[in-house]
Amino acid sequence: MQKWGTFADHALERDFRQSIMGQEVRTLRMNLLALMFFYLMPLALDFVYLPRETIFNLFLPLRLGVYVTILAVMLIPVRNATYGLRHAATLFLLSYIWVMTAMVALWVERQDVGFTVSFFIMIVVLMNYLFLPTRWLWMVGWGVAASAVYLWLVMPYSGATTSQIKTAMVMQTLANIFGAVTAYQLATLRRSEFHRRREQEAERRRLEEANIELLHRETIIALQRDQLASKVEELEEAQRQLIETKDSLVQAEKMASLGGLVAGVAHELNTPMGIAVTASTHLRDCVDGLDQAVAGNRLTRSQLADYQQTLRETATLILSNVARAAGLVQSFKQVAVDQASAERRPFELGAYIEELLLSLAPRLRQEPHQISVGCPPGLMMDSYPGALSQILTNLLINALIHAFPDGRAGNISIHVRMAGDDLVELVFADDGRGVPPEHQDRLFDPFFTTNRAQGGSGLGLHIVYNLVTQSLRGSIRLQSQPGQGTRFILTFPRRAGEPARMAG
Questions:
Q1: Share of the chain above pLDDT 70, in %
Q2: Neighbour-count burial of 226, counting CB atoms closer than 10 A to its CB (0-12 exposed, 13-18 middle, 19+ buried)
Q3: Cβ–Cβ < 8 Å for 389, 338
Q4: What is the DSSP string of 392-426?
Q5: pLDDT tens digits for range 290-301
Q6: For a surface tag, which of 21, 122, 239, 329 has the fewest beta carbons within 10 Å of its beta carbon?
Q7: How far apart are CA 72 and CA 92, in angstroms?
Q8: Cα 248 vs. chain centroid, distance in angstroms?
Q9: Once rounded to an integer, what is the mean pLDDT over residues 107-125?
Q10: Are strands 486-493 and 475-480 parallel, antiparallel or unpaired?
Q11: How far apart are CA 164 and CA 381, in angstroms?
Q12: CA distance 90 to 76
């Protein structure tokens, strides 16, 4: 960065000189004031070595000119335009003082004068290095030149001895070496300090810019945080509404399932109840005919036997159809109550599945599919039959809608087995078209359906998943390959809420 005590970068050197100018001028003025007092000593020595006539006629006016020159240099204004002028005036002042000091040795013909004056020349050389340290190379050139001229010209002319010249040479050499080193150190130190201040100023500006940027980013972050908080509130509100909507749709889905069950059972009851009503009407007509025959004494033994046979057949027909209707009502009542109440109670799993299929018979009878059930006899559950009913109903409806879209006949199976000490595994399977791989990960997501155009809500299997995992405290997984059917494997404890123990 620095070379010979100056900046290698000329622009940086110029900036340094402009910044140091005020301090340099103050130091120069203080040194010049000190020089004014110091210069009184050579003035006093004039009265020792020179005649008074020479002092008053020549040396005193010339020495007073030194003071005038010092004052002129001190009054040069502190401006960039006067920088070079100040340096030139200072060198002129030093040269003027040198000449005035050397004139004593040249004027007086005494052997010790040249050696005595060499001391004052050395002082002037030393002061030269302190006047303008920012241009120390100029001062080195002037100091060496001033010392050399005095040693090689003035002292021999003044009659100084060789010993005095050698002694003065050592003094002048030491003065120049000490002065040059001091001036170089001052120049280097001031430039290093200037460079450090420049770096500190640049770092301060960088920190200010960084703080401004940080404040700007903090403002942006605060705005984004406020926007994010607002978005979070909106999302929470939307999520709450979505949950409410989903719960409403789930409840509507359940009620729709129950309504379909009611409609199917009502339709199924029409046949046995219609037969029972028809038989009852026929029975009433037969009784009316019997009453008329008895009242008119026209009843024969063969007529009585016919009436008795008709009564037996009609009563049997009425009883069988009423019993059939009662069975449907009982199955519907149990399944409907379970779906509506969602209460926990003991039940036999195989029998309950049969009751559920019986209640769904009106819907299943419309399909060409074969449904098979396999369950260990006497398998008792202490769980939520309503949840199980909803699960199997949704799986059946889902299979009827999606597994066989082309109307072909298929097979649906429900198989149950014990998978642990208290763990039940229920496999619901069909041999339909299967589930595409890209849909399998989303099959249990709410509102996901591939049949929305036909009114699918996308909640059927989501309800199944929630009922299995939350109500039955179990798990459900899917196995399916396109064209090879679908298997839903449900695993849940026999006693709801208790941890299941897997078989070893």
A1: 80
A2: exposed
A3: yes
A4: HHHHHHHIIIII-TT----EEEEEEEE-BSSEEEE
A5: 777 777 777 777
A6: 239
A7: 11
A8: 37
A9: 82
A10: antiparallel
A11: 131
A12: 11
